[in-house]
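[job 4471] stage=fold_predict status=RUNNING
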Amino acid sequence: MDTQTQAQIYLSDQHGCSQLDFFRSYHGFNFGSYQAEGREPFGALQVLNDDVLMAGHRVCMQVERSTNVVILPLVGGLGYKSDAGKGFLEAGQVLILSLTSGMTYEVSNPYDTETINYLAIWLINSSDKFKVAQQINSFDFQIKNKLFPVFDLADDASFGNTASRAFMGRYEGRQEGIYPIYSGRDKGVATGVFVFVLQGAFEVQNRLLHERDGLALLAIQNGEVEFEALSNDAMLLLLDVPLT
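[job 4471] inference complete, writing structure tokens
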């Protein structure tokens, strides 16, 4: 039994929600007009929004601090435009936009009838080496029963020591996995892990999580996160997050 790890669960049915006729955003943390006790940012992880955008529409966001904005399509592809660049992002790709205070980015749905779904993740970065940039990584959604890297900003000097990394996994029922937290960071920087279940159900560090539930972990026992899929074709995302 893991008695050391500190944890906070963010149940999907308790997420905040912002909604327009053409756009719906579920907020894991306080965002915009949604402000609730116990939903403060988790270290550098300031925003984790689960966004749905209707066909033919676009939405624009602005950052207030130097931020790595991560856009991860889950259903459909999307167009994007920002102060760092523009292009098209397909499922199986992830976009990292490094934007300074006041910069904006736009996400657009290019389809005539199809709705798209994507994650928008904001990770603040206080490094004096931070610079405006964009980066696109590709990965294979079809890999099963192992974790695969989605992005790794921790080893890029331009992102500095306050950067993060993320892994994703797609698992069959009763398959187990272990995620070792990032050990290359300076010892003076505390690290936590945020887990987000994309589909299905998992047990993570003895905590039960269902689809779109989140889990923040601190003081992780033995420096690794243990999990088990409780349903077939279950998917989860793990973010290694600096806390200072």
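[job 4471] summary: The chain has one domain: 6-242.
[job 4471] exit 0
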